[in-house]
Amino acid sequence: MTNNKLTVSHAPFWHDGDSLFQMNLNIMIATLPAVIFGIIQFGAPAVGVLALSLSSAMVWELILNIISKKKISIGDLDSAVIGLLFGMMLPATSPWWLVVIGTFVAVVIGKMIFGGIGANPFNPALVGMAFLMLSWKVFFDFDAAYINYEFDFTALAPLAALKFQGASEVAGLFSTGDLIMGKQVGAIGSTFGLGLIIGGIYLILRGYIRWEIPVSFIAGIIITALAFKMANPDTYAGPMLHLFSGYTLIGAFFLATENSSSPVNRIPMLIYGFFAALMIILMRNIGAYADGTILAILLLNLVNPLIDTIRPKALGKGVNNA
Amino acid sequence: MIKRSFFTLTKPRLEYDLVEPDPKEPKQIPIPSNLTLLLNEPIDSTRQALIKKGDAVEKGEKLRLYNQSTEYTISPVTGTIDAIDAYSDDFGNTSTYLVIKNDQSQASQKEPITYDLKDDIASADEYFRTLPGAPPLKILASDDVKINTIVITCADMDLLSTTSQYITLKFLDDIKEGAKILKKITHVPKLCIIIPEGLNIQGGFDSIQVFKTSMEYPSNLPAMILKDHLSMILPAGKTPEDVGVSFISAEAVVSLANAYKTKSAGFEKILTVIGKQGTQYRVKATIGTPLHKILNAFSVHINEQDRIVIGGPMKGFATYTRHHPVQPDMDTVMIQDRDIIPELSDNPCVNCGKCIRICPVNVPVNVLVRYLEADQYEEAADRYDLESCIECGLCAYTCTARIPLYQYIRLGKHELFKLRALETAND
Fold first, then answer.
1. What is the DSSP code (8-state) at residue B216?
2. Cross-chain residue pair B7–A206, CB shorter than 8 Å
3. Which of B8, B309, B364 is facing A13, going by the closest CB pair?
4. Contacts with B302 from chain A: Cβ below 8 Å
5. Chain A residues with CB inside 8 Å of B238's CB?
6. Interface pTM, i.e. ipTM
7. What phi, psi does B194 have (nearest 5°)?
8. Interatomic CA distance for residues B28 and A189, integer angstroms
9. Contact A116/B at CB under 8 A
10. Which residues touch B64 (CB under 8 Å, ≥6 apart)?
């Protein structure tokens, strides 16, 4: 009889087969409808921005891995997702250095210095975006960015138009159908509402994002925007314009749902999604920014640890009667 | 292995296996020439042992290490003691193993020793602790613990296992008989029985209360049974025995009935063996039989780096040797090929929340694991419900980052007990 060595490990001896690689790959697959549409809409420059963003994000993580003498961790695709989402939020005409600086801030400052995957208190892609938007505001003027393009629809960034011209002026310019089908000016991956919704629903069905967050987020947009519109229909636009323009949908399905900066218990998730949306509409309607999605979600990332303490009581905790 | 389904909007559902409608007789494994028995007491070299290598033992003879020992084992064969040595389990607890050389010439025919039995629990505890199914007689006989409810479990604790269900189908009358004996010797006021809802039982249990448990894992675990059927919430860190409930397996009840009938101990344990392809075999083997004898009987070949799991896929443990003996409480043996052993990782938690959704008792696993990784056991218990965990293993099954969560929790509890024992000693 041979006495070969056996594998000894601990229970459970089964696993459902899921992994970080699978999860991140699925998130990337889910972005495809919106990404492909963006490439068709904005042409080769969009491909360049996305490719540079995705690859530079991975390279930054690789460099950090090497400097900090840690295991190479880019294989889990986490920074690929950060890079891809980051690229989707940029205009197609962004210069190369803007992309590289942005992914540096996103991956290095947003994620790696906190300890890498799972340790970031803020959504890394949003940290990068916030940095760029505050530093080089001019590149995020979508009307100026696409000055050399010719579109067969209203070539005005809806939220900027809304901000500077008022709801009564823009009322006839953007039909909801056009906005959903991506006939608007905006960032590469954020204009095609239908594609983002399809991707989001795919992720919800696959269980890779938690449905409570996008659902309460969208509900928050609709309810808050409706409340503003009812208060003053001349100044404030309706919920549909807010929902299908700017970063709203990419925020609902891809940004607010980032795992480590969002809550996991049910009631906190509903609060988180709703208040993120509420903050967005507040910023858009009475704040200084045309689109407050980035800062609103970052703000809710900040309060996430606090609201996530609302959780059901564990079995047998605090029971002394038995 | 049950993989994640393509659509997983809600948490995955794991179901207990149901025994086949008309189960075949188990395959009888012949009594091997060497049997290994485990004795739950460490060797103390400063004391004079009662047994030593070369001693003759009889079938049914009670074996103890020392005069004051309360732990014992019963020899399943007539033969001689071939070895006595120390054994340590995966948490470093030491005990003793005995190897008994089977005297082939007369052993198998010989009737076991009969005992002088009285109708009380002390007398049963004197001889029947190591019956197949491992009846919890030590606890029932103890003066420190007051048991007022006994639950007979005809449902299997872990996935894939069908041993208890098989016994329920085949030996229903013995279960009823054993229940009567239990009631008579223990005088517990309440006796109930749990049966999986999918299992069809002919006839009822006249005076015993029957609860049907759901087929969804982990509804058969003691804490869940207390909650769902006995309307008791198990306080964090307590065992069911602490709240006066003792669980006894169907097989233990059957063995008790037989033992009282013959006034001697039984040694044949029924096991479910799960081969590499998931094929189920049912086996009847003598306690102490090394596992490789059973595996050889079904020509299950064990290669380098395969895994032998004792107990089921969720709660079992892996053994390091193919000589591991059949024990009284061993219901299931599962063999995993090296190619299907899931890979674990040292990734940190990414907070995906799957463990929160699946945890049946609302433990905040995502935060808990951060404390356990940092060795903050007291904090983990006080604020993050370490002791509420019922050890079902579902969090680790579903973990996206493939963190060995269940092992972290078990280790955390182990370290916590050590810390507390130290504190008590210091006081």
1. B
2. yes
3. B309
4. 4, 6
5. 316, 322
6. 0.89
7. -115, 135
8. 66
9. yes
10. B50, B51, B71, B72
Indicate the DSSP class of residue A107. I
Judge whether residue A319 has pLDDT over 60: no
A133 Cβ contact list (under 8 Å, min separation 6): A140, A294
Distances B52 to B37, B63, B65 between C-alpha atoms, Å: 14, 11, 9
DSSP conformation letters of A49-118: HHHHHHHHHHHHHHHHHHHTT----GGG-HHHHHHHHHHHTS-TT--HHHHHHHHIIIIIITTGGGTSTT
Sorted by where each starts, the structural domains of chain B and their CATH numbers stand as 30-102 (no CATH), 121-262 (3.40.50.11540), 269-340 (3.10.20.90), 354-426 (no CATH)
What confidence tens digit (pLDDT) does each residue in B310-351 have? Answer: 998 999 999 988 899 999 999 999 999 988 888 888 889 999
Q: Looking at residue A165, what DSSP letter applies?
A: H
C-alpha count within 13 angstroms, C-beta hemisphere, residue B329: 14
Strands, sheet with B190-196, edge to edge from the N-terminal-most edge strand: B209-213, B190-196, B149-153, B245-249
pTM of structure: 0.90
Say how far apart CA A281 and CA B9 lie, in whole Å.
29
Could you give the 3-state DSSP secondary structure of residue B149? strand
Is the pLDDT confidence value at A102 over 80?
yes
B7 touches chain A (CB under 8 A): yes
- Given pLDDT bands bounded at 50, 70 and 90, which one contains residue A322? very low
The total number of residues shown for chain A amounts to 322
Decide if B12 and A16 are in contact by the 8 Å CB cutoff: yes
Structure tokens that stand for A296 in this block = 């609103």
Q: Which residues contact A1 (CB under 8 A, 6 or more apart)?
A: B292
Chain B residues 281-300 with a CB less than 8 Å from chain A: 292
Nearest to A221, CA basis, from A199, A248, A201, A196: A248
CA distance A222 to A240: 7
Residue with tokens 């690229």: A87
Number of other residues whose CB lies within 10 A of the CB of residue A259: 25
Q: Give me B76's structure tokens.
A: 């399943």
Domain ranges of chain A: 20-139, 151-307
For residue B98, what is the enclosing H or E element? strand B94-102
The answer to whether the beta carbons of residues A79 and A107 sit under 8 Å apart is: yes
Could you give phi then psi for residue A47, rounded to 5 degrees? Answer: -60, -45
Q: Judge contact between B250 and B168, C-beta under 8 A.
A: yes
* Adjacent-strand bridge partners of B151: B192, B247
- B166-187 pLDDT, tens digit each: 999 999 999 999 999 999 998 8
Rounded distance, CA A279 to CA B212, Å? Answer: 50
Put simply, whether A138 touches B (Cβ < 8 Å) is no
Q: Which residues, in sequence order, are CB contacts of B245 under 8 Å at separation 6+?
A: B147, B148, B149, B150, B151, B222, B226, B230, B232
